[in-house]
Amino acid sequence: MSIYLPIAEMSVDVFLILLMGGGVGFLSGLFGVGGGFLMTPLLIFIGISPAVAVATEANQIVAASVSGVLAHTRRRNVDFKMGIVLTIGGFAGSSVGVVLFTFLREIGQVDLLVRLCYIVFLGIVGSLMLFESGRAIFRRQTGTATRGKLHQHTWLHGLPFKMRFRRSRLYISALLPLGIGFFVGILAAIMGVGGGFLMVPAMIYLLGMPTSVVVGTSLFQIIFVTANVTFLQAVNNQTVDVVLALLLLTGAVIGAQLGTKASGKLRGEELRGLLALMVLGVCAKIGIELVAKPEDLYSINEIEGFGL
Amino acid sequence: MMTARRSPSWFHMPIILMALASVLHIPADAARDDALAIDLSEDLIGISTGFTGASVLLFGATEGEGSVIVLVRSPNSRVVVRRKSRVAGIWVNSDELTFDDAPGFYHAAASAPLEDLLPDDIRRANQIGVKNIGFKPHAFLSADEEKAFRMALIRNKQRSGLYSTQSGRVTFQGSRLFRTRLELPANVPTGKYAVEVFLVNEGQIVGRSTRELSVRKVGLEAKITEFAFEQAPLYGIIAVLIALIAGWFAGFVFRKV
After folding, report:
1. Which site among A187, B27, B34, B215 is 20 to 30 Å from A134 CA-CA?
2. Does any domain span residue B65?
3. Record: contact B93-A240, CB cut-off 8 A
4. Confidence class of residue A296 from pLDDT cuts 50, 70 and 90?
């Protein structure tokens, strides 16, 4: 059964989209990530223009994060105060990101930028996670695990405007979460992702937040950042396809529930190791595409639309 | 009595001669509008939710001998053609050329190979065949460079099924009636298309006729697009609201699972 997407202006197979949503949803439930970094490249792969893919995926992530936050709130795993500070930074960052995206789209370099962002950030995050989980698995096997300090003190802790975040058991400068929110917000807008895969490590390693509240708080701020991206993309570029977003999220919510169940069967470090491999896989694929000689060196882009 | 009976026939003689002339095809120096009669099975293609492409029957009758060429083109738009080159090991868009007057969709069909029907100059003048589409480049480049970009534009459009030339697609029923199927893929642009039919004989265009074909989104598809473009802020807010409700609903439904 096929359906014509009004904004993407193409006909797609309904079951293919549901399956994609379900598959990525399963992985996001399994690993506790938004899955945008997988879905956006997949959408582009099936022929949806990068502009529509990025904007529509932001819309879908709004829904995915809401249902995720609900589950985490019930377990009291959301630091709302931290979430709000991150959101303020994220709002500013994602607004800048959408403007940057629109500009790069006009000069024909948006494709390159999106790909480079994917390679750099997926590469860094994937390698770190693989290294960290590998070490954890190794330690568990050799039984040399040692309990370190809660977090190290660095120059980051000397910044002004200190705020107390009770649920995270932190007393740090508000500039830190604001800055992280801003930076991840820019990337979220450009890459069509929620930014969880960047936010979660940043919260753990830069802010020193306890792991238990990290995922819920990250999802909480992702709702607002992706909502902002969706709105701005709709206004600036008219590239949000609600029909596509609805199909994706239908598949994704079902997949996410199954994934969450499956995640109980694996250890944390094994999950992180698998996620790291997947992240590096996506990174490698995009990298190869950038380095390999394209089939056609020329590409075309319509700049005056056909109207309605 | 006999002359009285025969006089009406004599009176109609010029008309009969004209009809005879057109059947025998006494060469006309200019293309005539009445040498061809055409029609389409439908003049509106509605893009609705289930749209996977459309097929329109074009049929017609010729007055006199000849072959038929059919051109279908959508409104023109501006297209940027970009060329990648290797910079520091990766492929980056580096050169570009913008063309005006590029139809979003172009299809040429004929009852015989185009090269056999008309000489080059006439085909170029009437933009018959994908290689003769009159793109207008924005910048001056060397002839070779411009040709490379022009061919790339055509190649990219052909790859997505939007430009095509097919000879032998127009079939004749007897010597006067012809028909062809115009196939529009699912990714066709919207707009008012021009369907132009040429009657050609001995390397000359001896007749032409045009019909309009509308391709537009209808029903829900049209409403969503209109909404997205004309009330963008509201559309954005509603898109976010739908996602919020869907996410909340999903969380609610699966709470006990």
Report:
1. A187
2. yes
3. no
4. confident
Report the alpha-carbon angle B76-B79-B83, nearest 5.
Answer: 155
User: How high is the ipTM of this complex?
Assistant: 0.83
B4 domain residue, yes or no:
no
- Residue B59 CA to its chain's centroid (Å): 15
Model-wide pTM > 0.80: no
Structure confidence by residue, pLDDT tens digits, B167-180: 878 888 888 899 99
Shortest alpha-carbon distance between residue B11 and chain A (Å): 55
**Phi, psi at residue B195, to the nearest 5°?**
-105, 115
Higher pLDDT, A184 or B11: A184
The answer to whether A84 faces chain B, any CB pair under 8 Å, is no
In a domain, B10, yes or no: no
My answer on whether B138 and B254 are in the same domain is no
Question: Is there a contact between B236 and A240 (Cβ–Cβ < 8 Å)?
Answer: yes
Within-domain flag for B29: yes
Residues of A in contact with B157 (CB under 8 A): 300
- The number of folded domains in chain B is 2
